[in-house]
Design brief:
Helix content: 25-40%
Oligomer: single chain
Radius of gyration: 23 Å
Largest sheet: 9 strands, mixed
Structural class: alpha+beta
Distance between the termini: 35 Å
Number of helices: 11
Strand content: 25-35%
């Protein structure tokens, strides 16, 4: 299934130098294995396979189930963490993912499972047929876009086992795709009970982000490019051949989950290796921002967390700028492993190529390759918050005087018609009029861009503490939900803790209570269970009413 995550659909408003996690890990997880002794990825997979054979029953595995490796993390001390997806009678299991944790010697230590329920079904033959599921999903997409005339609407069901929503059941997971009146893409994923036809869940499927260049938002920035003959290409051979192309204001044309036409990504070229003019009238200027955002996000994950590219495989993504017609969005799409940026309508939003948007959207790719947090309910809020957190940390990491780090999201792209100075406010999420500052039992019912506020608030409090201060030229003020006063532990430690929680402990079904546990486990691993950092994580979650 194509995984696309968007930034946010705009609405008319009526109200107004990082410490590497790898180094932290090496300093805190002892004894450290020598390079020659540290297990390889293949060794970790082999060790985990032995564990799965020996502990199949305790892990809820049966002869009807199969597993595939999604991701592997090997700590500095040699401890291994192998993440799996699961099938049941050859059907994908939503919520079937789990992580096996091994000692440096390869012995079983523990596991995190998205579901602990037994997966067994009397049949995998659906009562509700695929065309009916397709119709239900199409209706859900229309209902989510009331007032829009949708064109070229298609929907593609796939039979799955749903273990995310209570007792495992046979279900249809259907991607409904269409174009709006401006020709821009809209999409929704719908999960339907394959026995009763009842809709189980639905969510937005748009996870919605050496030369030099004069950018729109970051001043003059350095760029690594490729010389081909006498022409320079906006392609970076030092970062997995990441590149940026012009979408020529076209959109993708997709039917039944298959894209028969992709908007182009015509590689930008230049004669003198000095790109853009710093104005939106020059098409290369937005490309400068997009490439700079890709470069900076790559460097952040590599230098701070030791991650070699979005999927940790050294492979570069690519960017498409000038997508669609006045398109007020940006998104990451797993199926093309690419970032796509609209130009904005000029009233609500300008070109969506700011640095924090780039870091946000590409972090959806990191989440997809690791915990793969379901884009619905509380896991969906955590998915969005993860991108807000890392997008913000990318902005701080850049240290760009033209775009100093702050705890606002999208402040560079908003225009007067939007009515607010940013898309989101991590110090006080409710400033946007919709986001939640504090957890409650109804948070999971909010749109994921608003339920994310709880984790964004937690992240700000953990890094900066409560009270009022000026950061990046912006006044920030944050209070706690329980009346406590907090001191922050800094952005670097926040990033290290959240990254380890995401890549080692979280699963597709992790909710806010699970995120508290995951981040406490991460803080314990990095700093010790009695450390200031561990206690600060607990206090910050309590300050947003989680636990």
């Amino acid at each position: 299934m194509s995984r696309i995550r968007h930034l946010r659909r705009p609405r008319l408003a009526t109200t107004g130098t990082a410490v590497a996690a790898a180094a932290l890990l090496a300093a805190t997880l002892t004894p450290t294995a020598g390079a020659a002794d540290r297990p390889t990825r293949s060794t970790a997979i082999a060790n985990a396979a032995d564990v799965l054979r020996d502990r199949a029953a305790s892990l809820g595995l049966s002869s009807a189930q199969d597993t595939t490796v999604r991701d592997v993390i090997v700590d500095a001390d040699g401890a291994q963490h192998v993440r799996y997806d699961r099938t049941y009678r050859q059907l994908p299991v939503l919520g079937g993912d789990f992580v096996v944790h091994l000692t440096p010697g390869g012995e079983y230590r523990s596991a995190n499972r998205a579901t602990t329920r037994e997966i067994t079904l009397p049949t995998v033959t659906p009562t509700v047929k695929a065309p009916k599921a397709a119709d239900i999903a199409a209706a859900a997409l229309r209902a989510a876009n009331v007032g829009e005339t949708l064109r070229k609407l298609t929907s593609k069901p796939r039979l799955v086992v749903d273990a995310l929503h209570g007792a495992p059941k046979l279900a249809w997971q259907t991607d409904a795709l269409a174009q709006d009146e401006a020709g821009n893409p809209v999409a929704r994923t719908v999960v339907t009970d394959a026995t009763t036809g009842k809709q189980i869940d639905a969510w937005d499927a748009l996870e919605t982000a050496t030369g030099d260049g004069r950018s729109l938002y970051g001043g003059t920035v350095p760029l690594e490019t490729t010389l081909s003959g006498s022409t320079y290409q906006l392609k970076d051979p030092t970062r997995g051949n990441t590149y940026t192309g012009d979408a020529a204001n076209q959109t993708d044309l997709c039917f039944l989950g298959i894209c028969v036409r992709r908007a182009p990504a015509t590689l930008f070229t230049d004669a003198d290796n000095h790109w853009g003019t710093g104005t939106s009238t020059d098409r290369a200027t937005a490309a400068v921002d997009a490439q700079y955002g890709t470069d900076t996000t790559w460097d952040y994950y590599k230098n701070v967390h030791g991650r070699n590219g979005i999927a940790n495989d050294g492979r570069g993504s690519y960017n498409r700028v000038h997508y669609g017609n006045a398109y007020n969005n940006a998104f990451w799409d797993d199926s093309c492993f690419c970032m796509t940026y609209g130009d904005g309508d000029g009233n609500l939003l300008g070109p969506l190529v700011s640095l924090d948007v780039a870091g946000h959207e590409m972090s959806h790719g990191v989440t997809s390759a690791t915990a793969d947090l379901t884009y619905s309910g509380e896991p969906g809020g955590l998915n969005e918050a993860t991108s807000d957190i890392f997008g913000t940390l990318v902005e701080f990491y850049a240290g760009n005087a033209s775009d100093p780090g702050d705890w606002l999201v999208g402040e560079k792209i908003v225009r007067s018609g939007f009515g607010e100075p940013a898309l989101r406010f991590m110090d006080q999420p409710s400033k946007d009029g919709s986001s939640a500052d504090c957890w409650s039992s109804s948070v999971g019912n909010l749109d994921v861009h608003y339920s994310s506020g709880v984790a964004n608030h937690f992240a700000y409090l953990l890094a900066e503490g409560s009270g009022t201060r000026t950061i990046g030229g912006v006044e920030h003020s944050s209070t706690t939900c329980n009346g406590s006063t907090l001191s922050g532990i800094g952005k670097d430690r926040l990033g290290a803790i959240w990254y380890r929680a995401l890549t080692v402990y979280m699963t597709s079904s992790t909710n806010y209570a699970g995120a508290r546990t995951a981040t406490l486990n991460a803080a314990r691993d990095l700093y010790g269970s009695g450390s200031t950092e561990y206690d600060a994580v607990a206090a910050a979650w309590s300050a947003v009413s989680v636990g």
